[in-house]
Write a structure and sequence with these properties.
single chain, alpha+beta, 13 helices, 5-stranded antiparallel β-sheet, 16 strands
Length: about 450
């Protein structure tokens, strides 16, 4: 893993290669030495940042990093050549600039001499980079069509065939218990194992287990680095029925070495990041899932941007990373080859963005603006339990679906226009238009 992050650091800093070669050509012996030391120092700092902060490794972000170092490096070396290494360097350092821009530069850099001019050059590089970032942001915002077209959709003109279970008794209630309630119950059960005071429950995931919908919540280190150094492993995880209001959390003793609360090479997100080159890790952290034998795995969706200029996700070309919490082995799967026990191949944050784009921009960007006709423009309701309160998970025929009602973007209207059901395993978005009972989002959810 250490060599992998070193390679990523070299890729990020490769933009300095051409400026560095130019510096070696124009500089004297001392300049070459200082330049080499500066490159080594930047590599060390960048390596530490890459290893601990896990920056986005999607290709657009890597290209951004390359351009940033290239532009900054070229400007700095050009300034050094003009003010330090050219035959007329002494004249250039003392020459008064003409013109408005020159006077401004002279005023701000006169106090610090040629060092101030180099600082001004760096500022110019940052401005150029900000302009480039603004262009990509504008293209991303104004060209959502490729992302919307990448969504695998199933359009239905009525709700007749919507995948809603027939509720015969309370045991078949599809809507899960509120995560806050489950979290409280699990925290009250933390005394189920030894040294429970050094652990905590930070996140939960809903999934299917032996035909039933359950919540799974891993035990995580509480107290930071020194607690981790002392114990090194977490003792296991909790699971509880997600639809039975009387269910009690059950602690499962499965010591896990590789978790998000671990450090260094045992950090689950760091191990997944080492397999995510070209993709963005979606969500705050990896989420726990268990197979039919109760073996715990951390799962994370890896999303791919459309292009360098268009940073919207490609919803048909994502990957799913699966980490064995006991062995530390990571496997990355295409959507069609995800293991059967993985019920949530697409994280709620991924689905939430997908549903929002579908509702607002499926008829194009201009249609959704004040200049367009607003034909069919919708937004997901905020009456859910996951994905920023937009989605509600439930079980249907052994699969987990994310459900949300779609309502008008007009703040004065609150009726349901239709429903979206996203298969959490295949990422297929099913849309059903509402014709009959016009109801509020809260009534639709209930």
């Amino acid at each position: 893993m250490l060599s992998y992050f070193a390679l990523i650091t070299l890729v990020k800093l490769s933009g300095l290669l051409i400026p560095f070669i130019w510096l070696l050509i124009i500089a004297d012996r001392r300049g070459r030495l200082y330049g080499t030391l500066a490159i080594v120092l930047m590599f060390i700092v960048s390596y530490i940042n890459t290893y601990f902060n896990l920056p986005d490794l999607a290709y657009p972000s890597l290209i951004d990093g390359w351009l940033m170092w290239f532009i900054a490096g070229m400007i700095i070396v050009a300034a050094l050549r003009r003010f330090l290494y050219s035959p007329n360097a002494a004249v250039a350092r003392t020459k008064t600039q003409s013109g408005v821009v020159g006077q401004i530069v002279e005023r701000f850099t006169g106090t610090f001499g040629w060092i101030g001019k180099i600082a001004m050059a760096v500022v110019i590089a940052v401005i150029v980079f900000i302009i480039l970032g603004s262009i990509t942001s504008l293209v991303t915002q104004m060209n959502p069509r490729p992302a919307v077209q990448s969504i695998k959709t199933d359009m239905n003109d009525d709700t007749k065939n919507a995948p809603m279970p027939v509720i015969k008794n309370s045991a078949e209630t599809p809507v899960v218990n509120a995560p806050q309630t489950i979290s409280t119950d699990m925290n009250n059960s933390l005394n189920s194992f030894k040294n429970s005071n050094v652990y905590d429950l930070n996140h939960m995931r809903v999934q299917m287990f032996k035909g039933k919908m359950i919540y799974v919540a891993p035990v995580e280190f509480s107290g930071g680095f020194w607690r981790y150094i002392h114990y090194l492993k977490v003792p296991g995880y909790f699971r509880t029925n997600a639809t039975d209001k009387n269910a009690d959390p059950k602690f499962v003793a499965k010591p896990m070495k590789y978790t998000p609360s671990a450090y260094f090479n045992n950090d689950a997100d760091r191990r997944i990041s080492a397999h995510s080159l070209g993709y963005t890790m979606v969500g705050a952290t990896a989420q726990l899932e268990i197979d039919d034998n109760g073996t715990p795995y951390y799962v994370r969706t890896l999303a791919k941007p459309i292009s360098y200029l268009n940073r919207n996700y490609d919803y048909s070309h994502y990957k799913v990373a699966v980490l064995n919490t006991i062995t530390g082995k990571v496997k990355v799967y295409s959507p069609k080859k995800v293991p059967k026990f993985v019920d949530i191949a697409v994280t709620p944050e991924f689905v939430s963005q997908e549903v929002s784009l579908f509702g607002r921009y499926r008829h194009g960007f201009w249609n959704a603006t004040s200049f367009g006709g607003h034909s069919g423009v919708m937004k997901p309701t905020t009456a859910g339990t996951e994905g920023g309160d937009k989605l509600t998970p439930y079980a249907y025929k052994g699969r987990v679906y994310y459900f949300t009602g779609m309502t008008s973007v007009n703040e004065h209207q609150s009726s349901i226009l239709g429903y979206t059901f996203v298969d959490a395993r295949t990422n297929t978005l099913h849309y059903y238009r509402e014709h009959g009972n016009v109801m509020t989002p809260e009534r639709a959810i209930s």
